[in-house]
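Private note to self, pasted from the team thread so I don't lose it. Backbone tokens:
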């Protein structure tokens, strides 16, 4: 399976490189890399999710707080459209950081158990072997 032949974060660096045509949200690559690293080292899903959240929780919360503060600063402008975009951005980022990334994703990953780490055989064959 995947964890037998992929070194820590090499797969993520390859999959989300600009040449692959996908750019993750800030913090996503690090969060997933920490989860995969913990899974490879322990083989325990609960411990991997706990480790990944503990390792990236402060980073995600800090980045979200900065974006929320900047977005809310637009609420003090005199242009209505700018106010709406700023407040909308702040609310969306606050919900994403607090509800989705800190509550829902770890809960869903814990419910899935070993299925988090399942890799379809066709994708396993298509991915490069990184030594």
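Design output:
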């Amino acid at each position: 399976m995947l964890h037998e032949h992929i070194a820590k974060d090499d797969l993520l660096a390859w999959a989300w490189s600009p040449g692959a045509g996908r750019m993750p949200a800030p913090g996503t690559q690090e969060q997933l890399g920490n989860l995969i690293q913990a899974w490879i080292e322990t083989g325990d899903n609960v411990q991997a999710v706990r480790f990944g959240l503990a390792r990236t929780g402060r980073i995600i919360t800090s980045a979200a707080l900065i974006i929320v503060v900047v977005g809310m600063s637009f609420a003090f402008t005199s242009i209505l459209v700018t106010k709406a975009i700023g407040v909308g951005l702040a609310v969306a980022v606050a919900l994403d950081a607090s509800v989705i990334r800190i509550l829902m994703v770890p809960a869903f990953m814990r419910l899935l158990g070993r299925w988090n780490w399942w890799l379809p055989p066709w994708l396993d064959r298509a991915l490069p072997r990184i030594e």
